[in-house]
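$ run holo --ligand "NDP" --emit tokens
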Amino acid sequence: MNIFSHAIRGSLTFVLLLCIPSCIGAKKELNLQDVLGKENLVDILILGSGPAGMNAAIHGARSRFNTLILEGDTPGGQLTRTLEIENFPGFKKISGPDLIEAMRDQTESFGAEFLPDSLKSIDFSSWPYKVTTEDGMIIHAMTVIVTTGSAPRKLNIPGEEEYFGKGVSHCAICDGTFYRDQDVVVIGGGDSAVEEAIQLINFGVGKVTVLVRGDRMRAVKCGQERLKKEDQIFIKHNTQIKEIIGDGNEITGVKVLDKITGEYYVIPAKGVFLAIGSDPNTWFLKDKVQMDKRGYLVMQKRTQLTSRKALYAAGDVESERSHQAIIAAGTGRQAGIESVKFLTDELGLDRKFMAKLKDTYYKGKNEKAAVHVMKPAELKKLKTSQEFETQVLKAGNTPVLVDFYTDMCPTCKQMLPAITQVAKDYEHKVKVFKVNATDEGIASIRDKYKVFSAPRILIFKNGKIVEDYVNEVLSRKKLSDLVEKHIGSK
Ligand code: NDP
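-- output --
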């Protein structure tokens, strides 16, 4: 390498060093006057409604700042899938859904507002930051707190995609009920794997084989001890799952490599529960803020500030932190404190200036209340296969949306308001029904359509399935797009 190429490399490094901080997080001063005239303005916008988001909101709202929570596709976040939490202070034992509900009540009591919509994009090219939602609303935010959590990882092996929702699941609390007396496999060696295995036992499954890829589990010791006490649970170390095998309709087993002997063998099973960790939901910040190789956001020193001004983050999106409810709640609260401090100390936002913004502040509450005229409980429920035949399969050219749910399934509850809204929006054009997939009266329909996972959304037309979504939280926008596709079509 000659001096010339060294010089070029040197100047490139210099340019890059200059560019990276400004590319991933503008450090220029923000001017409060720039918020004047901006519609749908909020002081603090929180992306995500898990423990981090709600605890950030509690501080924002208690400090009397205009605080809006964009709920996202999974209101309440991953914690809603946890049946038993025994390490959240103040509770010896509490379920995830109960804890989330209590936090939500508390958050709302201080005046923070929840918007049942999801993020589409965020634009940092000017300030206040411009956030576009799935429903097409544009919100201008003086500060944004990212608490979008994480999404379950996949194995990327043959059979996983094919049998997802038909035996492969990442939610025992949602789907455990379909595997009563059946043998199942849990993949993973962390706290979630322990939790999934215990939940499956509680649902009355047969044998549970836990496949751990290393020679030890990383789950907390008391969890591991709990697994060992259960006669039905068998832990196999040094294993690698190679394939999920089935007959085209359902799973029959998993093909496993014994990493010590090099031998392959098959474990017969009807269900495979993945508990192999999760990846942060930070796709919308790629190349816009500093993140590590895995997509976790890097905080500035010991704060909740990202590499971009007025953009904070907390909870599972954060690099180098344990992913636990209490940590999410604590870091969320800290992010709330820092954003309030920024609004007051750095921006100089005070009551007098806020009064000037009265007309441009976001005022969704009343409009939203007017839109939600139908209650989820009013959604018609089909209880027998006969009813299903008449109402769904013989509905002719009218699209029929069927929501298969189970009582314990948190994702099903999360999606219910969106389904109810679609039922109302398309009242005379689309029929919408809910079906408890575990009802005995519906057993023949459950078997016919292989409903082994909830939520399962099927749209029928002329007695045939035209849309099929499993184990996915569909937003109101997505559901509307799906039904619209089939209104009026042949
Ligand atoms: P973790 O990342 O902690 O564990 C993932 C597990 O999956 C590890 O054992 C890992 O193996 C294994 N794994 C990863 N990829 C594969 C693969 N391709 N094939 C086989 N195995 C794989 O995730 P968890 O969801 O268990 O936990 C996430 C966080 O949530 C943790 O901080 C945990 O403490 C917390 N949590 C807390 C709970 C509570 O407090 N009640 C309950 C549940 C979770 P390896 O160990 O070899 O890397």
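-- notes --
The radius of gyration is 25 Å.
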